[in-house]
């Protein structure tokens, strides 16, 4: 059964249309990759799921419940954890506070997060606005995990991270996947993303143009849709 | 022509036509009312330069308004009593001369105030400008030489060559011309290199510095120019009322100037004009209907903030501003 | 053609109480006179000088009023009166008498039906000589405050234990009260109008300092006494009028005001009542259109003042008695003033000599 | 070898107890792309901030074209010819892409204290600015406000602004971040061409790009340069592999 | 003799400072923490004083009045937040200035409509009348001591609330990025209503407590508002500690200025001139101090972020 399901999603920014019918689904325990060139609507899709922008038409359901039209905090509480594009850590909170402020449930704890990202432990009392870019990315992931989501959504999961850390994050994602965590992930590095993903969706000009297993995304298709 | 330009033109014509009509119908009071609108709008155009273009939310522009007013008042009083100002310098009742002095004084005082205040930003800037204005306000209240709290009455309007300023309509026309000149200046500066840099300083000072333009200098000049326009308006206001007092320097005045701008539409050319028109209009009309007018004025203002984003002009011209 | 009187007074904001008393007494006096030819144009100045100027302009140019009155505050009067009288419109002050309008700049079109600002303070200075030798005086740091203390010192002969100018709008007086306590004064004289006075009196009473306090009548007028409460009991204050002043006109006034508005009149109401009656009396003798005749009729002051005897001096300011009152509690628990002495008989202000009228 | 354009000696900067820059020395020579790599939080951006002037160094010298610029503020350094991009895009959000670039052209052209001439029809500004947008393939979006550009487009705009300054040195802080595979490829060849306009200090985590572009690489760890050399030297350095590259190399 | 007076004046300054803090506390919460410029804060203060005075007069109990003041201010605060403020969070400061300016007009004139134009009576409760002896022979009013106590308790309570509780973290997080905190599952809307009502209640409490010392009248909130802004800006926005320190600085500087400046000037000029000039300088003094502090520390003494 699908955990998350989008059908024919259309979203506007003011008068200009950004999404022209996005269709996508994530099944329980699955890692789904969302791909597309710059400006094709990946972030807009994610923002629509969380209610940060209101889709004009189309249906979104999560765990069998229609969620379009709900306010963002209601949607999030159903079990969606967001790692947003640009990290958006709370600059005036310390690392510790960033993690604790919105924590829910008890699977993930501060200790578990710092075990995953030791650097966050070292910086626990530092204000987030003084963290390096990579540290902020770790913090954003940790913060989302602390809400114990049934679906983790990562927008630009590894942007700005050093290669070693990136490997850490991918292995963390693999660990999460092994533990049965469902994940929707956007990332630019195909060589790292595709091996982790169970299925892929590709957006072009705000619409879903490909759906299938990573292997089905042949080099020709990659070139056509992603310009690799 | 965009819709906003059309509306601006209509406002300008309305503001000119109504008093001329009123004067020909023998209703001089409405001319005076229009003059009040024009002068307040001029003061707000000054503030709009700092606030609308530069994002400098000065909560102390009443200081410059009042300074301009006091320059006019003090010069006129000295001239009337035939006392020299100091060191034998004679005073004057000539409006153009008074304006020059008022503008210069406002600008000169704005420079140090700006230089100190611009070290801060955001809410701190709001408060430090307020602090300077309050200093001047308390000084004016307790300094006896020019009337203190009682203020200063001018026995007659100052003189403008070839114009009978005592009559409402000619004086209105002088003020109207001043307002139009200031609006032209605003429009030109807005589109100039300086205006570009100033607006960029509002949006992202770091970006401006990174291309090699020091935001501080840009902001300081804008602050001084803005103060000069507001000081000019102060001098006109003194002549309009034939009175200056510390209330021109009070924080209520600063607040009112800000309110005019937001009401009309921040950063828009005719924002202050539209704001002054509705504010004075409501003040006058409601004041005539009920003594609870402040209550209803509050409700109307609230309605405008909540439902007319971008002020009155934003509502009328229907689209957000982009450059 | 009816006579138009423009009334500019404070009807909104913090100081509205005084303006409302002023207006209520004025309209009541006109109503009771039965004179149907008087038309009132009443506007609110919100205690802002610029707004007052604007309204005056409108009344003169638009409404074409014959007479103007109503302003409560000195600074508003200073903004409005000079320009008004210069346009040959007669202005009658129901309150506020700044010194600048009483001396060299007096004007035939300006009549003060209330007092010259110094008067109340002069009276208390005079009265203080009776019992005290070492007074502590304080007032806000603005022209009216300075006039007040100057007025007090003009007649007071004893020593000064201290003289303080406080901040305009100040609400905490602990520091001043500490200085008073330490000064060794035998009396305190203060002039703190409006909320400042209420705050000072409350804090003074709470502080436990028991040096006797005196003030001008405004600070113990009927509009503020309830707010000060028992802290005001026994305080001596000066005024040209009191509710218990024994004359026919006053009895009639107090009764009428109480009956109409269900509250006791304040001194502002009394002065305003007098102003209205002065105008009515003059109207019965001359037409407002005949300026000279009308000014003469006003100057004659041929009316029944609630203050008893009332005459104009050469500078069109009153010559009148000034009384000392004491705050007492009446049987029904209401705080009010009772006259206990007369500080001055037929008092003239200090500026009249400089007036060339 | 030629005189270095930019020369940093023993630069230090601490935040409290943390030594973010701990005695860094570095030279940038004409025609060179010098890549600065290192783990997250190593102090790369902090170093860029100090060179550009948005942070003041605690000690050490920064010489640019032979002049000590340690005492100058950010704007003055930019005027001397230091152009930088930001790790997180920093634009005038309400201005269109074109006007963002025009601002840079105007800054290069000298004084901004011109109050009368209108910029909108000032060909001295619009034409060079448009040319820059064309170079980064953003001409089609010239009139879109920066706030409405997508993440990747904003990164391109940052580059265009830096170009418009025709600087003597480029300081780029992760220009590839947020660019898709296609974008990265294009940007890589674009930057490759830029080395002839001015030398470049390039902070980047995209190793494909770094290895393709860099003439020289310095590796920063905990505020210190632990290795510096050619691409091959760095690729095979065991310390660097452990601290930074992992298996990626 | 003079030393004793000096000490008493220092205490007065301290106490004025704490009183100012009490007024500023609610404002810091709303302004510093929620990032909202609330010009109507003074009106909430007035509402507290009016509610206390009215209820105390009706019931004869100051304490019931005090509870009424909390309830009235919190209630009005909650209504304002839901009806007006809520729509303004994502706007810039300017719209907030205009909206809350409009609220001042509405609330002041509304209060006059309801309660009339004359000041109301409110006195300190019998329990707190009288004075306590100070070491060294002086004495200090019990009620003012109680205000100091309440002020300090409020300071500590707020400090803990903001810096130590999850509620506080969420409020601060919401200030920097409302959208994000919502996306992480926090109902920031309701949270802010509660915070605004709490800030309003503190304003009401201050109004009631200080109302017993002052005149309870329309417009009483305005001078307080400006001073409260001065206080929190000196201290650094968003910092409770800063607000307390700022308040004490303002209180002491103002009191000592009023007390000492005239006497100091009297050393160099005639006494009559010294009193007026001294008073004039004293009234400008806190603004001078504020400008100086901001000139050297552009974001206050204890800004929340470095
Ligand atoms: N706030 C906004 N207002 C108007 N248009 C927007 C806004 N945000 C995005 N857009 C437009 O919507 C389209 C889709 O943008 P979106 O950010 O979803 O793309 P993306 O696939 O996430 O791109 P990237 O890989 O660059 O992050 C783009 O054309 C962009 O210009
Ligand atoms: N203002 C500050 N106060 C305290 N610490 C700071 C401050 N600015 C940066 N730091 C710390 O200094 C270190 C270096 O940060 P910097 O941003 O330079 O890293 P970086 O090398 O650019 O990392 P990344 O590749 O992740 O962007 C980090 O640990 C960061 O937390
Ligand atoms: Mg995106
Ligand atoms: Mg970095």
From TrEMBL, chain A:
Pfam families (alphabetical):
ABC_tran
InterPro entries in the record, alphabetically? AAA+_ATPase, ABC_transporter-like_ATP-bd, ABC_transporter-like_CS, BCAA_Transport_ATP-bd_LivF, P-loop_NTPase
GO MF terms listed in the record are: ATP binding
The organism's superkingdom is given as Bacteria
- Does Isomerase show up as a keyword for this record? no
All copies of the ABC transporter domain together span 4-228
Annotated SMART domains: AAA (SM00382)
- Report keywords, A-Z: Amino-acid transport, ATP-binding, Nucleotide-binding, Plasmid, Transport
UniProt record similarity statement: Belongs to the ABC transporter superfamily.
Q: What is this protein called?
A: ABC transporter ATP-binding protein
- Species in which this protein is naturally found: Ensifer adhaerens (Sinorhizobium morelense)
TrEMBL record, chain B:
What is the membrane topology listed in the Swiss-Prot or TrEMBL record? Answer: Multi-pass membrane protein
User: Per its record, how is this protein called by name?
Assistant: Branched-chain amino acid ABC transporter permease
**Native source organism of the sequence:** Ensifer adhaerens
The record's GO CC annotations read: plasma membrane
Q: Where's it mainly located? A: membrane
Keyword DNA damage present in the record's keywords: the answer is no
Name the PANTHER family on file: ABC TRANSPORTER ATP-BINDING PROTEIN, HIGH-AFFINITY BRANCHED-CHAIN AMINO ACID TRANSPORT SYSTEM PERMEASE
Q: Record keywords: Zinc included?
A: no
Q: Which GO terms describe its molecular function?
A: branched-chain amino acid transmembrane transporter activity
Q: What keywords sit in the KW lines?
A: Cell membrane, Membrane, Plasmid, Transmembrane, Transmembrane helix
According to the record, the segments passing through the membrane are 32-51, 58-77, 97-116, 123-146, 169-189, 210-237, 270-289, 295-316
> Where does the record place it?
Cell membrane
- InterPro entries, per this entry? ABC_transp_permease, LivM-like
TrEMBL record, chain D:
Q: Does the keyword Transport apply?
A: yes
Regions annotated as coiled coil: none
Family annotation (SMART domains): AAA (SM00382)
Q: Which domain of life is it from?
A: Bacteria
The UniProt entry, under SUPFAM superfamilies, shows: P-loop containing nucleoside triphosphate hydrolases
Q: Name one GO molecular function term.
A: ATP hydrolysis activity
What are the record's GO terms for cellular component? plasma membrane
Q: Where is the ABC transporter domain?
A: 6-247
Q: Does the keyword Transmembrane apply?
A: no
Q: Which Pfam families does the record match to this protein?
A: ABC_tran, BCA_ABC_TP_C
Q: Which keywords does this Swiss-Prot/TrEMBL entry list? A: ATP-binding, Nucleotide-binding, Plasmid, Transport
Please give the InterPro entries that the UniProt record associates with this protein: AAA+_ATPase (IPR003593), ABC_AA/LPS_Transport (IPR051120), ABC_transporter-like_ATP-bd (IPR003439), BCA_ABC_TP_C (IPR032823), P-loop_NTPase (IPR027417)
Instruction: List the PANTHER family.
Output: ABC TRANSPORTER ATP-BINDING PROTEIN, CONSERVED COMPONENT OF ABC TRANSPORTER FOR NATURAL AMINO ACIDS-RELATED
Q: What is this protein called?
A: ABC transporter ATP-binding protein
Automatic annotation (TrEMBL), chain E:
Where is the signal peptide, in residue numbers? Answer: none
Main location class:
membrane
Positions of transmembrane segments: 16-37, 44-64, 70-89, 101-122, 142-162, 183-213, 225-253, 274-296
GO CC, any one term: plasma membrane
Q: Where located?
A: Cell membrane
Q: Answer whether the UniProt record assigns the keyword Membrane to this protein.
A: yes
Keywords, comma-separated and alphabetical: Amino-acid transport, Cell membrane, Membrane, Plasmid, Transmembrane, Transmembrane helix, Transport
Q: Which Pfam families match?
A: BPD_transp_2 (PF02653)
What is the membrane topology here? Multi-pass membrane protein
Record's keyword annotation contains Transport? yes
Any single GO molecular-function term of the entry would be: transmembrane transporter activity
The UniProt entry's GO biological process terms, in alphabetical order, are:
amino acid transport
What family, per the record?
Belongs to the binding-protein-dependent transport system permease family. LivHM subfamily.
Q: What is this protein called?
A: Branched-chain amino acid ABC transporter permease
Q: Tell me which species this is from.
A: Ensifer adhaerens
Q: What is the lineage of its organism?
A: Bacteria, Pseudomonadati, Pseudomonadota, Alphaproteobacteria, Hyphomicrobiales
